[in-house]
Every structure is written in C-alpha cells, then in structure tokens.
C-alpha cells in the first residue's frame, strides 16, 4: 500500500498518537494511523521498537502487523505506521455490548490468544517457528490490546496488537517497569518472561467473564499501606509515581468463575457493577475456570505454558466449541500464516 496523507482525513482521534483516518474518495475505507518515536537512530536502524519486533515475526492470523510504514514522518524523530481498521474495536469496547459474554466467545479468545502467545514465544508448530528469530515477550497483554475481528460469522476472531512494550526473552532476571501494571502478574517488575504473558492472558479471560481485572482495589490497598507505614514504601520511589507502584503491588486475586449465584453468596464473592447495577458473576464451566486459574497461578513456575495451552487446552476447547452445534464456532480456529 502506498500512503499519501493528502488522500485521507481524520475521522477520530483515539489518543495523541493514534487516529482513525477515512479516505477522501471512499468513506467506507478506514485505516488506523499510529505515530511512534524512532528508536536508537545511531544504530543504523531507527525504526520504532514496535515495528522492529513485528518485523521479526512471520505473518500470522493472530498478530496485527502494519500495512505500511513511513520512516521519519512526521519528523525525523518519528515514524508513521498504517494499520487496517477493525470496526468491532478491542475487547474492552466490544464487551460492553456483549454482557454476559457467551462462553464460546471466551473460549475462542482464549484459544486464539494462546496461539498468538505461543507463536511469539516460538512454542508452535515448526512451520511457523523454524525461522531463526528470538523469543518475544509482549509485556502488555490486556483487553485494549486485543482486537475483535469480524470473520463473517456470529463468532468473532481475536488478534493481538501493540508490541510497543515488547522485549527479547533473556536468561537474566532484570526488572522492567513498562506496560500496564494492573494487567501484569504479582512478580512485577520481573516481567521479561514467558510466564508473565501467560498470567496476563489469564487476566483477560477473567475480564471477559467478570468485567474486572483479577486484582484488589489499588486505592484501598494504597490507603491501607499508607496508614500502616505513615508514608509510601521506600520501594515506591523506583516507580514513576506512587499510583503506579500500588497498581503493580496490589495483591492479585481471581474469584472462581464457575460458581452459581448461591455459591457466590455463600463464599462471599462480591457483586460486580454492570451498567451501574450490582450483579453476580455469570456462571461459566468448570473446564474454563480450570484453565484460567492455571494461567493465574501466583508463582510463575506453577503456571501453565503456552505450549500446554495450544496442545492440551486446544483439544478441550475445540471439543467444547464443537458441542455448541454451530459449525461457525470453529471458524478460523487454527493458527496459520497471513495477516
């Protein structure tokens, strides 16, 4: 695709770096323009980090890559990337129109994003991982970084976006304070690992089921800690702000999603506010809860792996989707090439 800015108008400003553009000659043609800061120009490769990481990956039906990149636009310090526009939006936007989320939709997201994570972690079939490339850790998996894609059926597909916080996996245990802390595991800031992305995937499953992240209220935790210590903890100074520290350190907790309303009442599961109305968590299956909890284990060594998700869980997920009796539930269910 050749990008000519003069042929496009701004339709919507999503944030200072991202705009939805509409073609002047065809109002049905939309793209997303993202402006990113170039990285390390002195290295000879000044492309933004996100573009560098996406370039390492073969094309896949689980990861969104740009259709055009304009280096040094709008200035030498930045580049502009053009992405296809997906009108259903991200999971956060889409879920607001789908409450409660049907279980087959959660299974499809869970499986397809497990495939995406296994793909970037080089834990998939040799045909997609035989290319010599490093293992990539996303470090910012969350509802707003997973797009909902219309595939022509009533069962949408899901794709991973935004590799701006990604890194190469290393064997060195180094802290990293990047990404969105509320969607990161309890070992934050040590998130440069495959296991950290697995926890974040489990957190998105929990969000689709409940509408909240698997984390206590950071404000309540901050108030309790401040009352206890009389000040912010010394380690809070290592974070950009005290608020970010508490978002990283607030205890993680996920209630079971397979409980009936009576069981939730007896076990003290709090009500969830949906459209301002307190409600019980919708009851999902034991098997979905089991795999979600396997991702959300507190210890990284106790969590399931992306390889287990795309082998053992995939078999069970496909069986569940088959049992819906709707062949469309199995549309686009396998990882493949293409973008």
TrEMBL record:
Domain Protein kinase: 1-321
Sorted UniProt keywords: ATP-binding, Kinase, Nucleotide-binding, Transferase
GO molecular function, one term: protein serine/threonine kinase activity
One Pfam family of this chain: Pkinase
InterPro entries: Kinase-like_dom_sf, NEK_Ser/Thr_kinase, Prot_kinase_dom, Ser/Thr_kinase_AS
EC number(s) per entry: 2.7.11.1
Name recorded for this polypeptide: non-specific serine/threonine protein kinase
Organism: Periconia macrospinosa
Keyword ATP-binding attributed: yes
